[in-house]
Amino acid sequence: MSAQRPLVGFIGLGNMGSGMTRNLLAAGFPLIVNDIRREAAAEQLDAGAEWAETPAALAARADLVITMLPTPKHVDLVVNGPAGVLAGLADGGTWIDMSTSVPEVADRVRVEHAGRGFKILDAPVSGMSVGAAAGMLQIFVGGDSADVLRVRPVLEAMGDPERILHVGGHGAGYAVKLMINQLWFSHLVATAEVLAVGTKAGVDLEVLRQALIASPANSAFVERDVLSVLRDGDYDEGFAIALACKDLGLSIDLARSVGVPTELSALVEQVYRRARAQYGDLAGEMTPVKLYEDLIGQELRVAAGTGLAAGAELAGAEVAA
Ligand code: NAD
After folding, report:
1. CB atoms within 10 A of CB 46
2. Is 282 a residue whose pLDDT tops 70?
3. Where are the beta strands (DSSP E) in the chain?
4. For the chain, does the N or the C end have fewer beta carbons within 10 angstroms?
5. Which residue owns the Cα nearest ligand 1 atom 7?
6. Each residue of 196-232: pLDDT tens digit?
7. SS3 of 212, please?
8. For residues 107, 112, 117 and 123, what is the CA-based torsion angle, rounded to 10 degrees?
9. CA distance 161 to 276
10. Cβ of 15 less than 6 Å from ligand 1
11. What digits encode the pLDDT tens for the residues 38-53?
């Protein structure tokens, strides 16, 4: 990789990748892009990026390759498939997977191509498409320190420099991202449950919420994040429940692969799957609250104006996706 401005190859120009590539270009990185939907690259090509017909063609030209794809299956196809990244990447080349995924694909590449000296990092993100567009993503990087240091300027073009965290060796980035989402979704289900029960038992919803805030059971979710539903009736369609279910499934897969039973996570996943079945793939990630509202036959709502400043709530929402 050249010292100052490596040619960055970017595959996956969706909700996240489009903002991320815009910020790479704005930071002065030359860019080569690929997506199965060529039309997704229109803006980047207008702004001076090159187009590659295949991941292999992209990898053959780029100094480092970034993937930002929906699921591990997509990552596997793009990396290992016909005309995939590995068919073009030079020995010693760098691949950074920023998708929310699991380590299996990269692990297999390291084992099956051990002699080719690829530098591989997992670097999934939080911050939603809004954070991607603003170049303020939180990035959790797993891999070797020297590689992280070398690509840091590229990551800084897409993320908040203070929140680009080298969290451990290969796979640690994927694990941290999945555990953050798992815990947040668990907070959501647990909170919806107690708010529904307390309300049904006759307690005023905001009195109950304030009592929880003043108690040892308080959480950022009770204090802040749940307000988007309680106050605004907003279940966050910016992050579809289908993707939330994908993340929960991967979290369970990860637990299975390391041999840890996770009864609670499995239950949370089932609640999410029930909400997805009931309200559809495109329903918001907070729709499980609606399951409990339907159970008690009333919406959980507090007065408009309840809660913190909008900025604080946005920061909280970034955690989930
Ligand atoms: P998306 O579906 O909007 O974009 C994915 C892109 O990959 C699409 O443009 C699609 O055409 C492209 N693609 C799919 N298969 C391909 C292939 N074989 N070759 C080339 N391109 C291909 O998804 P997204 O919302 O941008 O999410 C990407 C990743 O980031 C996911 O793992 C997601 O979980 C994670 N993530 C999303 C958010 C969010 O708020 N959307 C936040 C944090 C993390």
Report:
1. 8
2. yes
3. 8-11, 31-34, 50-51, 64-67, 94-97, 119-122, 125-126, 137-142, 159-168
4. N
5. 12
6. 999 999 999 999 999 999 999 999 999 999 999 999 9
7. helix
8. -20
9. 35
10. yes
11. 999 999 999 999 999 9
> Measured between alpha carbons, how far is residue 301 from residues 63, 91, 206 in Å?
52, 57, 8
pLDDT for the residue numbered 20: 98
The three state secondary structure string of 224-273 is HHCHHHHCCCCCCCCCEHHHHHHHHHHHHHHHHHCCCCCHHHHHHHHHHH
**Is the C-beta atom of 20 inside 6 A of ligand 1?**
no
Give the distance (Å) from ligand 1 centre to CA of residue 295.
34
Q: 250 pLDDT exceeds 90?
A: yes
CA 311 to centroid of chain Cα atoms? 20
Checking if the pLDDT of 238 tops 90, the result is: no
**Residue in 39, 52, 62, 104 with CA at minimum distance from that of residue 83:** 52
Q: What is the pLDDT of residues 140-194, one digit of tens each?
A: 999 999 999 999 999 999 999 999 999 999 999 999 999 999 999 999 999 999 9
Give the SS3 label for residue 43.
helix
Whole-prediction pTM: 0.90
Mutational test site, ligand 1, from 65, 68, 78, 314, max ligand atoms within 8 Å of CB:
68
Kind and range of the H or E element at 279? helix 263-279
Convert 122-159 to b/e letters by CB count within 10 Å (16 or more is b).
bbbbbbbbbbbbebbbbbbbbbeeebbebbbebbebbb
Q: What is the rounded distance in angstroms from the CA atom of residue 303 to the CA atom of residue 229?
A: 11
For the record, the structure tokens of 215 come out as: 């108690």
The whole-angstrom separation of Cα 232 and Cα 87 is 49
Give dist(CA 15, CA 4) in Å, integer: 28
